[in-house]
Design a protein that fits this description.
The chain is an alpha+beta fold. It has one domain: RelE-like (YaeB-like fold). It contains 3 helices and 5 strands; from the N terminus they run E-H-H-E-E-E-E-H. It has a 5-stranded mixed sheet.
Length: 118
């Protein structure tokens, strides 16, 4: 069976690079789990559905909490479209809106139909 791949768009890559090293390491860990097992077999505490086709990677460090918002795209790809430090209990609406805009720019936001069944 073909593996999933995690891709990071350039804007999200810039956001990821400004996170503390510990949170960047957490991102790589969760991304590796998603690639190995696929999105259908990974859940809390690593990822959770956010809204529509958007999901979030949950990254917790000693001094900060961050989120990486992604969606499943054609070709068994998980595309990370937004990375940010989380400062409130709920994911801010503006972060979700920005991620949704970026998703629409990628692949037209076409979800991989296998994502729901994997």
């Amino acid at each position: 069976m073909a593996r999933w791949t995690v891709e990071v768009i350039p804007a999200a890559e810039r956001e990821l690079k400004v996170l503390p090293d510990e949170l960047q390491g957490k991102f790589l860990h969760v991304a590796g789990i998603l690639e190995e097992f696929g999105p259908g077999r990974v859940g809390l505490p690593h990822v959770r559905p956010l809204e529509g086709k958007l999901w979030e990677m949950r990254l917790a460090g000693r001094d900060a909490i961050a989120r990486a918002i992604y969606f499943a795209a054609s070709g068994r790809r998980l595309v990370v479209v937004r990375v940010f430090v989380k400062k409130s209990q709920k994911t801010p609406r503006r972060e979700i809106a920005l991620a949704a805009r970026r998703m629409k720019e990628q692949d037209g936001g076409q979800q991989d139909p296998q994502a729901a069944s994997q």
